[in-house]
User: Which sequence fits this backbone?
């Protein structure tokens, strides 16, 4: 009976989320005339300019949004590719992160919000294996924006949550030497990705909830009790970190500390681990959100705690991700 109740709650919440998100999409797109003038009804928290763009890839028009921060920016600029999770959208990503566009305003970097096919990324797991080649899409997109002089090819970074976090790592493994750093939120490492080790060092950050009900911190089946359909297996957080340490040629931690629990009411705390020399290509940084769920710290609690777990307020995920990225370039 408890499982049936959880399924009912999930169905209602997902239906509501889909309805709200689609309503926001139709409201924010406006007319074609509005968009030809660069106008979009605002769905982001920053003070900069959001531009809706398309790119033809293998005969298909792929959509993305390019965020130009307010304030001074020098071109070519550093760029963060932010990938939504499964079932999510590019438009909802700024809200989900709690306002990564505001972080871009403060730190003067571009953000690219690509749109997945049918709200998913082909991240190398069989469950997400659709005919579209998302690696080719992102490769072409980087080449296009670099060719236009907008982004600095030596300072391209990838981050994402869940399916978007798996995809960020998949990109680093399929395109070694293309990304100056990646940050995976609520996604350890897909079991079948373990065979893709490149030995090309890539700076990696993990932000993982120890009580994530969908991508288990201790490893195992993705989806837990809520999703019965096979979504693949993941390595434990410890094994995922060791995978990247081995890939990057590292073995020992340079320090470990518990971040103080300054907001007891959110029932989370943060264990911070650091591996390698700060700013080196081998660097790996890990934030274990003790008591955290399948969420982006200080982001949107997009579904009830009973379904996706808690959203920690202890860590400003956007800022620590950018601080990590800003130390690295190819």
Assistant:
């Amino acid at each position: 009976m408890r499982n049936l109740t959880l399924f009912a709650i999930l169905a209602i919440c997902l239906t509501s989320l889909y309805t709200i998100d689609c309503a926001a999409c139709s409201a924010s797109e406006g007319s074609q005339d509005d968009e030809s003038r660069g106008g979009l009804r605002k769905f982001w928290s920053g003070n900069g300019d959001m531009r809706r763009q398309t790119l033809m890839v293998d005969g298909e028009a792929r959509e993305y949004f390019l965020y130009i921060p307010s304030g001074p920016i020098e071109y070519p600029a550093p760029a963060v590719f932010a990938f939504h999770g499964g079932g999510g959208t590019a438009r909802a990503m700024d809200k989900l992160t709690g306002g990564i566009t505001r972080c871009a305003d403060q730190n003067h970097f571009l953000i690219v919000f690509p749109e997945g096919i049918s709200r998913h990324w082909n991240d190398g797991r069989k469950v997400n294996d659709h005919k579209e080649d998302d690696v080719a899409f992102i490769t072409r997109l980087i080449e296009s924006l670099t060719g236009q002089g907008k982004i600095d090819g030596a300072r391209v970074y990838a981050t994402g949550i869940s399916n978007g976090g798996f995809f960020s790592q998949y990109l680093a493994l399929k395109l070694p030497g293309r990304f100056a750093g990646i940050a995976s939120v609520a996604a350890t490492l897909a079991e079948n990705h373990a065979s893709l080790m490149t030995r090309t060092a890539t700076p990696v950050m993990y932000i993982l909830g120890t009580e994530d009900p969908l991508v288990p911190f201790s490893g195992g089946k993705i989806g837990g009790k809520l999703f019965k359909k096979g979504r693949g297996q993941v390595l434990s957080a410890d094994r995922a970190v060791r995978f990247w340490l081995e890939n990057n040629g590292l073995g020992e931690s340079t320090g470990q500390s518990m971040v103080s629990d300054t907001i007891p009411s959110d029932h989370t705390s943060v264990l911070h681990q650091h591996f390698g020399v700060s700013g080196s290509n081998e660097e790996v940084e890990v934030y274990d959100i003790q008591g955290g769920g399948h969420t982006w710290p200080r982001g949107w609690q997009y579904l009830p705690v009973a379904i996706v777990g808690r959203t920690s307020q202890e860590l400003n995920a956007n800022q620590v991700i950018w601080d990590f990225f800003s130390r690295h370039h190819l």
In short: The chain is about 30% helix and 25% strand. Residues 2-29 form the longest helix (28 residues).
